[in-house]
Amino acid sequence: QKEVEQNSGPLSVPEGAIASLNCTYSDRGSQSFFWYRQYSGKSPELIMSIYSNGDKEDGRFTAQLNKASQYVSLLIRDSQPSDSATYLCAVQGAQKLVFGQGTRLTINP
Amino acid sequence: GAVVSQHPSRVICKSGTSVKIECRSLDFQATTMFWYRQFPKQSLMLMATSNEGSKATYEQGVEKDKFLINHASLTLSTLTVTSAHPEDSSFYICTCRGTTGNTIYFGEGSWLTVV
Q: Are A97 and B46 an interchain contact pair (Cβ–Cβ within 8 Å)?
């Protein structure tokens, strides 16, 4: 079982709709969870971090964490073409940050 | 925000030669630096963790004699790919954790092409 799992996609969403990205992780002791956006050929950039159960909102982005289910998600409201990218879920263990395989998201105008 | 600089951003080298990639934290001290490799359409895979002044800890399956990591100061770590082969062609990314807090900062990445 992979440590961090994501659906690789591609996920296509019409402009203006809500994009929903999901991630599961295997280490129950994980405490910190992150969503990164990566454009083709570029390094990932942090868009959201979440540390406790529940929802965390930042602009059009909402991260949701459920530690009992070992599940973390990212919602993007009012999706824009510029949101088209690969989204990486990352989970912080005791020492290292482990990434999922990423979900390729395309927003269709 | 904190800046992490990688150099070179792109490099092409001949098969069998060695190439060095530098990772610098520009406005903070990085006690721990992590080196990742990303093949096309794949995720970031951790290669090694380096702490300033000590030997790097390599992930399973990563050859420490092929990927030499030196973390000589709190602001500089280098990755040297020795005897490079075309299959080493990849995007190499360093990340840094500062002396305070748990925030991890990403370098811009270095594209290595071995021909």
A: yes
**Confidence band, pLDDT 50/70/90 cuts, at residue B80:** very high
Q: Quote the tokens at residue B68.
A: 């030499």
Distance from C-alpha of A101 to C-alpha of B44, rounded to nearest angstrom = 8
Residues of chain A with pLDDT under 70: 1
Nearest to B93 by CA among B83, B103, B79: B79
Return d(Cα A106, Cα B91) in angstroms, integer: 22
Contact call for B106 and A44, based on CB within 8 A: yes
Q: Which of residues 53-112 of B touch A (CB under 8 A)?
A: 91, 93, 95, 102, 104, 106-109, 111
Give the pLDDT of residue B2.
67
